[in-house]
Amino acid sequence: MLKIGDTLPAGTLYEFIEVEGNGCSLGPNAFDITKETAGKKIAIFALPGAFTPTCSARHLPGYIEQAAAFKAAGVDEIWCLSVNDAFVMGAWGRQEGAQGKVRMMADGSADFAKATGLTLDLGVKGLGLRSQRYSMLVEGGVVKALNLDEGGKLEVSDAQTLLAQARA
């Protein structure tokens, strides 16, 4: 399982791009994790699924509300990761007003979740393999802080906890 001091695993995440430009086409675009994190300080939070109750009511909104505070703390980008496709993540981001604040990154086949060892089997609820709920602060691809919630709770992966770590 991924831990503080580890480098993020290599791989690809997908983001739905609303407006064509800057080398990105309209629709889902692939992004290399190693290249996207190089030389940047990134706040990453992962959750079991887009449009799910806790994720929509509390987890994502906290990061959207605190986006300016994260920037002020030296964070270059905020990423929301979920085992959903880029179309779903894009639609969820539009609904929640994430544009320009939080990058909605899709891990559609759970490859990143598997590579980090941070998976959650929700097959019994008909949701299949998902990501655990966590947050992490990453600098240059290296994990500097990692907050893992247990049992579907939202206690330590919230925006306030990661923001305090980014300010430290």
Automatic annotation (TrEMBL):
Active-site residues from the entry: 55 (cysteine sulfenic acid (-soh) intermediate)
Residue ranges of domain Thioredoxin in the record: 2-168
Molecular function as annotated in GO: thioredoxin peroxidase activity
Swiss-Prot/TrEMBL keywords: Antioxidant, Oxidoreductase, Peroxidase, Redox-active center
Stated role: Thiol-specific peroxidase that catalyzes the reduction of hydrogen peroxide and organic hydroperoxides to water and alcohols, respectively. Plays a role in cell protection against oxidative stress by detoxifying peroxides.
Cross-referenced PANTHER family: PEROXIREDOXIN, PEROXIREDOXIN-5, MITOCHONDRIAL
Protein name as annotated: Glutathione-dependent peroxiredoxin
Species: Sphaerotilus hippei
